[in-house]
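New to this. Please check this record:
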Amino acid sequence: MNSEHFAHAKANAEEALRLQRDRPREEKDATDRIQHMLAAFMDLVTGLDEEFAEIDRRLGQIEDALNI
C-alpha cells in the first residue's frame, strides 16, 4: 500500500484515540473522533484501491505478453 495513505490513516487513527483518552467523560463528543476514524478508513480504502488498480494493470501486461 502507498506509504503516504498508510501514514495518513495511522495519524488519523492516533488522533481519534487521543481525543477519546484526553477528554473528560462529561465533555466527550464523538464527532471529532468519528471524523478522524472515517478519514483513516478512507485513506486505507484509497490506498487499497490504488494497489488493486496496479495489480490489475500488471495482470493485463502479463495477459498481453502471454497472447503474443
In short: The two ends are 31 Å apart (CA to CA).
